[in-house]
Amino acid sequence: MTAQTVVEDGEGRFAAHEHRDLAVGLAHIGETIERSRDLTSGELWARLHHALGWLEHELKPHLIWEDTWLYPQFDELAGTPWATKSPRFEHRQIEAVIAALETDSARWLGRSTPQTDADVVSHLSAIRALVATHIEREERFLLPLLEDRAPTTG
Known about the structure:
Layout: H1 3-8, H2 11-35, H3 41-78, H4 85-108, H5 114-148
C-alpha cells in the first residue's frame, strides 16, 4: 500500500478517530489522579489495574500499529525516516512508564504504603502527560501530512 492509498482510504480520519478513543482512557486516568487523595489504597489499586488493562489492550496495540504501519507511511510521504524519529522516541518513553506502573503493581501486592500510592499517582500522571502530548504532536505535525496529500475532487 502506498502513502497515496492511505490517504484515499481515509487513514488520517481513522488515526484521528483512534485518538478520540484513546481520550476516554486518558480521562479515566485523569479522574484517578484528581481523586487520588480521596481514594483508599484499595480503590487506587483497582483504578491502577483498570488503567493497566487499558494500556495493555488499547494503547499498546495502537503504538504497535503506529510503529509498524502508520509511521512508515509518514516517512514515505516526508521522504525521510526523520519524520517519525520523535514520535517513535515518545513511544519508548510511554513504554518505560507503562513498565514502571507494572512494577508499582507488583511492589504493591500486600504491601501498600503511602510511598507506593504516591509512586502510582506519579506514574499515572506521567503516562497521562506523555500520551496526551504525543497525541497532540501527531495531530498537529503528522496527520496534516496525510491531509495535504489527499486527492482533491473537482
